[in-house]
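Data availability (excerpt). All sequences and predicted C-alpha cell strings are deposited with the supplementary files. A representative entry, FMN-binding protein, is shown inline so that the format can be inspected without opening the archive.
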Amino acid sequence: MNFKYISFLSLMLLLMSFGLPKNIQKKVDKEIKGIFSVETFKFTGVIISSDIKKDLPSKFEEDNLFKIETNDELLGYAYLSQASSKTAQFDYLVLLDKDLVVLKSKVLIYREEYGGEIGSKRWLKQFIGKKGGDTLKYGDNIAAISGATISVRSMTNAMNNLLESLKILHSKNIL
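C-alpha cell line:
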C-alpha cells in the first residue's frame, strides 16, 4: 500500500470518529427543535480542559456537551451521556437553557427488557427546572419505579452529578 492511500484512510477514519451517531443525532435534533422552537441551529461542542474535567463528578468528553445557538444567539446546552441499568447502559439527553436550568431530559436508547418506564415523560418531568445546587434524592423528591430501581437510582445519581458539574463549570466561567 502506498503512503497516500494509508494517509487518506487514516484521515477518513479520524473524520468519521467525531460527532454523534446518526440515529442519536436525529433524536437530539428533534428534541432541540421542539424545546427551543427552532428549525435551524448550530450545535457545537464545548471543550473542557483536562485539569478542570478531573474535578467534575460527571464525565465530559469531546462529544457530549454542546452549545445550541441560532443567529449567533445562545439558546442553551445539550448534554448526552450514559447511565447504568441492571446489565447494560442507557443513553440519555439533558437540554438546558442558557442559565443552565433543565428544560428536558430524555432517555434516547434503553437496552434492557425491564425498566423501560424510566423513559416515560411523566417520570422524567421531575428533572425540569432543576439547576446547579439542587439535590435530587431517590424516594424523596424523585419517585421510585417498581422494576426499575437500578435505572432510577442511576439516572438520579447521573443528574445529581451533572447539576454539580454545571455549578462548578459556571463558577469557573466556562458556561
